[in-house]
Design a protein that fits this description.
It is a single chain. The chain has ten helices and eleven strands. It is of the alpha/beta class and 226 residues long. α6 (135-144) links the parallel β7 (127-132) and β8. The chain has helices at residues 3-11, 21-32, 65-73, 84-90, 114-117, 135-144, 160-163, 178-182, 202-207, 209-223, and strands spanning 13-18, 50-52, 58-63, 79-83, 95-100, 106-113, 127-132, 148-153, 169-174, 185-194, 196-201. It folds into two domains: 3-104 and 195-223, 3-Layer(aba) Sandwich (D-Maltodextrin-Binding Protein, domain 2), CATH 3.40.190.10; 106-193, 3-Layer(aba) Sandwich (D-Maltodextrin-Binding Protein, domain 2), CATH 3.40.190.10.
Amino acid sequence: MSVFLQAQEQNRLVFAVPRGRILRALRPALESLGFAPESGLFDESDRRLQFNSEVAGLTFVRVRSFDAATFVAFGGAQIGVAGTDVLDEFRYPEIYAPLDLGLARCRMAVAESRETASQDDPASWSQVRIATKYPRLTRRHFAARGVQAECIPLSGAVELAPALGLARRIVDLVDSGATLAANDLVEVEQIREVSLRLIVNRTAFKLRQAELLPLIDRFRQEFASS
């Protein structure tokens, strides 16, 4: 790569967006705010991970929901979006989260099988075994209640844990509750509400305010009053 092209690559801004449900919720905003990323960004059959936009020097990268915050925290991307569940799990000090977009709203909850839930009382718990994608957040939540939590980390298919005897209870995100119901699980305790936030790398924000502030302002004008 020539020195000129390397300089272009280094000067571009990278916007990290989570794939799947979050990206579908974010798509109308990205289009209405004039970012106009390549249509392949929203096409799950497109195997590319980087996509150009109509904003000069702005590239979008499509990543796993847990990874968007990591890319921004460590400087692989300068700006992005991430759920408050991920931000609370990792608590990266390198991330500045200036705006709650109010998109992809759901809740984080404790769930267990319908059969055992009918005989259970969360107020009586002193120790629990939990299968979850959020071990740090889960431990903090239960520690604040004086409950000792043994967490079994899973990256997916968390709803299988009670049926297979891995853990009696799970902590996961719940939207409509359909996935829990399909696996004969019910909520027994809500931990917190979750929504999508705009995030920025703190160092990039200090060094590249002239480029980042206009992008942040686009989102603020659209979502600050929502």
